[in-house]
Design a protein that fits this description.
The protein is of the alpha+beta class. Strands 1, 2, 3 and 4 form a four-stranded antiparallel sheet that branches. The chain is elongated, with a radius of gyration of 12 Å. The mean pLDDT is about 95. The relative contact order is 0.34. Helix content is about 20%, strand content about 45%.
Length: about 60
């Protein structure tokens, strides 16, 4: 079983009406890819969200 880690994820959410939201989230995940998927799923469920931008190299930090 994969070990779970805590990640801090910075995400830019772009809405259909051109509004933008920058948000920081703390998630438990196996790795950076899993953390990114969790946040994308969370914000793309919003009715007006059109895109979620997360740079995996810079915007995801593993917390100790």
């Amino acid at each position: 079983m994969a070990e779970m880690h805590t990640y801090k994820v910075l995400a830019l959410v772009i809405y259909r009406d051109e509004r933008k939201l920058v948000t920081t989230n703390i998630v438990r995940a196996k790795d950076k890819k899993d953390a990114k998927k969790q946040i994308e799923r969370k914000y793309l469920r919003l009715p007006d969200a059109s895109e979620v931008i997360i740079n995996e190299e810079i915007d995801i930090i593993k917390l100790v």
